[in-house]
Amino acid sequence: MLPKENRFSARVKGDFFANAKKKYSPLLVLYHQENNLDVCRATVIVPKKVIAKSTMRSEIKRQLRNALVPYLSGMKGYDLVLYLKSWKSGANYNQLQKEVTSFF
């Protein structure tokens, strides 16, 4: 779980996705934007269109958040949104962690 100070709600800023810079990988999209704060905030979005079962969506969100935690302490002043754009049934935590690592 992300520490409270590092949590970010994408709903707070309606223009976030329009103004954010993007990085792509086969499974994920990372949206990032400066926030002028001393902390880095992050959130994970797993759409229902990509994974229909809520238990699987929650599991993947937890895995992605856990993969993000080591990088948040070293970064300051950014809002990050990890968006799962596709899912392969054979994908696992190691593959998700490798893709998150490729962004940083």
Secondary structure elements and pairings:
Blueprint: H1 16-19, E1 21-24, E2 28-34, E3 41-45, H2 54-72, E4 78-84, H3 93-103
Parallel strand pairs: 3-4
Antiparallel strand pairs: 1-2, 2-4
Helix pairs in contact: 2-3
Written description of the protein model:
The structure is a single chain. The model has no long low-confidence stretch (mean pLDDT 84). The protein has one domain (4-103): Ribosomal Protein S5, domain 2 (2-Layer Sandwich), CATH 3.30.230. The protein has helices at 16-19, 54-72, 93-103, and strands spanning 21-24, 28-34, 41-45, 78-84. Helix content is 33%, strand content 22%. Strands 1-2-4-3 form a 4-stranded mixed sheet. With 104 residues, the chain is α+β, with helices and mostly antiparallel strands.
CATH architecture: 2-Layer Sandwich
> Which of globular, elongated, flat, extended, rod-shaped describes the shape?
globular
**Structural Rg:** 13 Å
Q: Helical segment tally?
A: 3
Sheet with the most strands? 4 strands, mixed
Order of helices and strands: HEEEHEH
Distance between the termini: 19 Å
What is the CATH top level name?
A: Alpha Beta
| Structural domains: how many | 1
Helix share of residues? Answer: 25-40%
Secondary structure class reads alpha+beta
Strand order of the largest sheet: 1-2-4-3
Give a count of the beta strands, DSSP E runs of length 2 or more.
4
Poorly predicted sequence stretches spanning 5 or more consecutive residues: none
Percent of residues in β-strands: 15-25%
CATH topology: Ribosomal Protein S5, domain 2
Mean pLDDT: 84
